[in-house]
Amino acid sequence: MSDVLDDQAPAGAPTDDAAPRSRTRRLAPLVVGVVAVLMVGLIVVLAGASPDDGGNTADSPLIGRPAPEATGTLGDGTSFDLSRRKGSWVVLNFFDPTCVPCIQEHPELVTFSEDQATLGNDGAELYSVITRGEQDEIEAFFADNGGDWPAIYSEADEFPVAFGVAQVPETWIIDPSGVVQLRLISTVTAEQLNSILRQYREQYR
Description:
Elements: H1 2-7, H2 18-47, E1 71-74, E2 79-81, E3 90-95, H3 100-117, E4 125-130, H4 135-145, E5 151-153, H5 158-163, E6 170-174, E7 180-185, H6 190-204
Parallel strand pairs: 3-4, 4-5
Antiparallel strand pairs: 1-2, 1-5, 3-6, 6-7
C-alpha cells in the first residue's frame, strides 16, 4: 500500500508534460517582442528610403548635392543653363536616337510629359539631353514618335560628362532647389516617374 503511494506525485506538483508548457508560456512574450522590434525596424527603413517604384536606381556622388552647372543649346538656338531652372522639378532624360532602349521608352516619356502638363505649374519640366545625333535627326525622330518637350545639345558632351553618363538611357530628377534627388538607369515608365515625383512633392512640402 505504501509503495503505491510513494510512486504517485504529490498533489499540485507539475507533471512531466507541464514543464515544457510552462517554458513555452515564458518564451512566447520574448518571441513576440523580437518580432515587434524587427517590424519596427523594417518600418523605419522603409520610411527613410528614397521614392522608387522600379528598382532601377543607381548611386552617384551627385545625389543630394546641387546639380552640376551644365549649359547647352536648345533646338531653337536659345541657350540652356540648368542652374536657372530652380523653382521647378526638372527631369533630364539622356537620349540617343539609335539606342534601342531609348526608342522603347519614348512612348512612356510622351505619356509622362502629357501627365505633367495637366498639373500646370506643379508639373515637372522634361528635357531630352542628346548624347548622339544631329539636330535634324533628333527633330525627325520626335516628329515621327511624338513628344514636344525641349532637347538639349551640349558642346563636347558637357551635360553627359557633368552627370557621369556613359550609357543611355538614364533619367535624373532635380528638385526645385536645384538638388539632385534621383538617378534612374535603364528604361523608365510614365507610371514610375509620376509615382516618384508625387512622393517627392509630398516630402518637399
